[in-house]
Each structure stands twice: as structure tokens, then as C-alpha cells.
């Protein structure tokens, strides 16, 4: 009975709709290679064989290994970030330096980013349910929103305290403690940068995609390194010129602006995700042109591109094919064209005949912009 049910699903011409869950990796254009099964030309199924859409490949196994490495790097980076963040909070309080505490707030952003990346990797392995058919990926977005809210609260308190210091400069700063703490912060960020750095020339394309979260963490670590160096310079200025202690609240203002600017960028990305917008690295017109370029495709409509979360891109479309072409062959060619140019978590195509088209249907029209 199971074989008969499968045969019915494949041959039912009224509902030629199939979903192709692909591997979760970074959204970007990628070249074809022999290890990348999604970009390979699909083999024609032999007569009497069943072509399954969930076939495993060597590329998926390589990504699984790279995800293990990414989890280890992100876990180690989170531990280092947490230890030095606590050290900066305590040291900044002892030294009376708001600039050091603001640097700790920036470390909090990075720690949140690392933990969200780990959370995302864990969610990708959690199975979906009949109620949550897409799984638990959107929890990452909710967690990011909560972390941004907490960062705003902390930054607001620091800005208020810095304003009080400008209005009432009757405070003391332990320049020696501030210098030691900020120097340790520079060392910590150097360790993070070395840990998260990846040698591009020696890595394969699959490794680069699987380590997308690690590369993003590396960028955060570089930003922290620059900020820590700035705090260290401020500490040295106050150490040699105690009368210039105003450098501390000024640094607090500057770094608070930097922290808020980084959260605004994250909020823009979250807004696109929540509004089901087309993610970065992929455009509506580019995807449609790739589909229309396939031989036998007459028209494409109801094209939708959105993301469950970062790097979990989904595409669905209705495709009308010419009568002289086999719709299943056209479908395989479309899958090859899309998967060889972009990386998609899930791809759903509904194949239709020219007679099924309605030129007056408003839902089949392309969006204006």
C-alpha cells in the first residue's frame, strides 16, 4: 500500500506540488563543484525507479562536521566573552570608569550574538511537529528582540550616568585599574579574533558556508577590539593627565552611539524577517529570471521568497510549462538552476499547464516593486 500511495502522489496531475528541503547554510551565490550535490545536474531516473527528493549527499555530511566545529568555536568564544565581560563590569566599577562598563555592554552584544548563533544551530537539529511544521526557528528572532531591549536599557542608564558626570565632575577615576582592565580587554578581544579567524584560501566552499556564524562572530570581535583599544587610549590619557578625566564620559557617549547603531542594523534585519521580506543576497527579479531561463517555462507567478530566520530561506512559485515539455523534467531543471545559484532551506514548485492560467487573476500579478 505504501508503494501505491507514493505512486499516486507523484503521478497526480492535479496537484503537482513538491517541497524540496535543502541544507541550511549561508545565503550567497555559489559555484558548482563535484562535492556539491545541490548544484549537480540531476541524473535521469531509470524506468521503474522512484526518485526521492530527500537523497543525502556528501556535501550535507561535510556541513554536519563543520557545524560541530562552529559550535565548538562559538562555545569557546562565548566563555571567553562572558569571563572578560564580568571582569570589565567589576573592574570598571572599582576604577569608576563608565567607558570600561560601556565596553562591557558591547561585549554583551557579542555574547548575545554568539549565543543566538549556537541557539540557531541547536534549533536546526530540533525536529518540526505537526503543529509547528517549520520547526522552532523563529524563537531566535524573539530572543534577539529581547536582547536588544535589554541592551537599550543598559545603554540608557550608562548615558544618564555619563551626563551626570559632565554636569557634576566631582568624581574620581582609578586610572591604573582602568588601564589594567582595558588592557586585559584588548587581550581578550585578540584571543577572540584569533579563535574565530578562518583561513579563507585553505577552506572549501562548503566549509565557508557552514561557518557563516563563525565569520559573523569574527566581525563582532574585530569591532570590540577597536573599541577596547580606544578605551585603553582613554585610560592612558587619564593616567598621564588626570585633569583630562572628562575623556571617560566622552568615550561613554561615543561607544553608546556605536552600540545603538549596531542594534539598529540588527533591528532592520529582524524587521525584514518578521515581514516575510526577501532576504539579503537574493532578489525577486534574479530568482524569476533564473526560472524563466529554463527551457519549457512559459510564465512564473505567485513567486514568494522569505526566511524563517537567518540563512533559512524558503522559495515557492507557480510555474506554467509548455505542452511539448515534460513538467517533471522542467521541474528538475528549475531546481538545478536555483540551487546552483542560491542556497535555499526549502523549495516548493507548483507545475501548471498553459490552460490553467487566468490573465485577469490579481494574485498572479508581479508586485510593483
From TrEMBL:
Specify whether Zinc-finger is a keyword of the entry: no
**Is-annotated flag, keyword Cell membrane?**
yes
Give the principal location in a single coarse category. Answer: membrane
Ranges annotated as spanning the membrane: 74-98, 104-123, 144-163, 175-196, 217-240, 246-267
Where would you find this protein in the cell? Cell membrane; Cytoplasmic vesicle, Secretory vesicle membrane
* InterPro entries in the cross-refs: Cation_efflux, Cation_efflux_CTD, Cation_efflux_CTD_sf, Cation_efflux_TM, Cation_efflux_TMD_sf, CDF/SLC30A
Q: Where is the Cation efflux protein transmembrane domain?
A: 76-275
How does the protein's chain sit in the membrane according to the entry?
Multi-pass membrane protein
Keywords for the protein's UniProt record, in alphabetical order: Antiport, Cell membrane, Cytoplasmic vesicle, Ion transport, Membrane, Metal-binding, Transmembrane, Transmembrane helix, Transport, Zinc, Zinc transport
Q: Where is the Cation efflux protein cytoplasmic domain?
A: 279-353
Per the record, the domain of life is Eukaryota
Catalytic activity reads: Zn(2+)(in) + 2 H(+)(out) = Zn(2+)(out) + 2 H(+)(in)
Indicate the quaternary assembly.
Homodimer.
Q: What does this protein do?
A: Proton-coupled zinc ion antiporter mediating the entry of zinc into the lumen of pancreatic beta cell secretory granules, thereby regulating insulin secretion.
NCBIfam families attached to this UniProt entry: CDF
Q: Which family does it belong to?
A: Belongs to the cation diffusion facilitator (CDF) transporter (TC 2.A.4) family. SLC30A subfamily.
Q: Output this protein's name.
A: Proton-coupled zinc antiporter SLC30A8
Organism classification, top ranks? Eukaryota, Metazoa, Chordata, Craniata, Vertebrata
Q: Which gene encodes it?
A: SLC30A8
Amino acid at each position: 500500500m505504501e508503494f501505491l500511495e507514493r505512486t499516486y502522489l507523484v503521478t497526480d496531475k492535479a496537484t503537482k506540488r513538491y517541497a524540496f528541503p535543502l541544507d541550511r547554510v549561508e545565503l550567497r551565490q555559489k559555484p558548482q563543484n563535484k562535492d556539491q550535490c545541490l548544484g549537480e545536474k540531476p541524473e535521469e531516473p531509470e524506468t521503474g525507479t522512484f526518485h526521492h527528493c530527500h537523497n543525502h549527499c556528501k556535501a550535507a555530511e561535510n556541513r554536519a562536521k563543520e557545524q560541530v566545529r562552529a559550535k565548538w568555536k562559538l562555545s569557546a568564544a562565548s566563555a571567553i566573552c562572558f569571563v572578560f565581560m564580568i571582569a570589565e563590569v567589576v573592574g570598571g566599577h572599582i576604577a569608576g570608569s563608565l567607558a570600561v562598563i560601556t565596553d562591557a555592554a558591547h561585549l554583551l552584544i557579542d555574547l548575545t550574538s554568539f549565543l543566538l548563533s549556537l541557539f540557531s544551530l541547536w534549533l536546526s537539529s530540533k525536529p518540526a511537529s505537526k503543529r509547528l511544521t517549520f520547526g522552532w526557528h523563529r524563537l531566535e528572532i524573539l530572543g534577539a528582540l529581547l536582547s536588544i531591549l535589554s541592551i537599550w536599557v543598559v545603554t540608557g542608564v550608562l548615558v544618564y550616568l555619563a551626563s551626570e558626570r559632565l554636569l557634576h565632575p566631582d568624581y574620581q577615576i582609578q586610572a591604573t585599574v582602568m588601564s589594567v582592565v582595558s588592557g586585559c580587554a584588548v587581550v581578550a578581544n585578540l584571543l577572540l579574533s584569533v579563535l574565530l579567524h578562518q583561513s579563507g584560501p585553505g577552506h572549501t566552499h562548503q566549509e565557508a558556508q557552514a561557518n557563516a556564524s563563525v565569520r559573523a562572530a569574527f566581525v563582532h570581535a574585530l569591532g570590540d577590539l577597536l573599541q577596547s583599544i580606544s578605551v585603553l587610549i582613554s585610560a592612558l590619557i587619564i593616567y598621564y593627565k588626570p585633569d583630562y578625566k572628562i575623556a571617560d564620559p566622552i568615550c561613554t557617549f561615543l561607544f553608546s552611539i556605536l552600540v545603538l547603531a549596531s542594534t539598529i542594523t540588527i533591528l532592520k534585519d529582524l524587521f525584514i524577517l518578521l515581514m516575510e521580506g526577501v532576504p539579503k543576497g537574493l532578489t525577486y527579479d534574479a530568482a524569476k529570471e533564473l526560472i524563466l531561463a529554463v527551457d519549457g517555462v512559459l510564465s512564473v507567478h505567485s513567486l514568494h521568497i522569505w526566511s524563517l530566520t537567518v540563512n533559512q530561506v524558503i522559495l515557492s512559485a507557480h510555474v506554467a510549462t509548455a505542452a511539448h515539455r515534460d513538467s517533471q523534467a522542467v521541474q528538475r531543471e528549475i531546481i538545478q538552476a536555483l540551487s546552483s545559484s542560491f542556497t535555499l532551506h526549502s523549495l516548493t514548485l507548483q507545475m501548471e499547464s498553459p490552460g490553467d492560467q487566468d490573465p485577469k487573476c490579481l494574485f498572479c500579478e508581479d508586485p510593483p516593486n
